[in-house]
Amino acid sequence: MEIRYLGFDQRQNSRVYRFDVRSDGRLTKEVSISADISIFRDHSVGIQEGPILSGNKLAADLERGWEGEHELTAADVQAFADTKALADGQRAGARKAPRYRPGVPAETQHKSPWRDFGI
For 3, 94, 103, 118, which has the most beta carbons within 10 A of its beta carbon? Predict the structure, then answer.
């Protein structure tokens, strides 16, 4: 199964994301998934994340055999925000601490003669 993003339509306070669903290389159907704009703001998720979130939700719905209306819910956006925050925290924890030269006072280590233009 292949899902291809086609675009979105703005309807008052929501966006409707449109997708082509293909099976075996043939167009099976065009499916849309709606999302209220306020859920993005409430969970501090950028609106540009809408297509990927909607595509993931649609893929999960289709794997379960869901044939009804598709909607991106607050729980879906919250799960994405939580996963992103966890990944950001892990990346921050994996960063190396800055190296300092032993025997040189710390206050002089941050000053580079190349940045002192005599101004």
Answer: 3
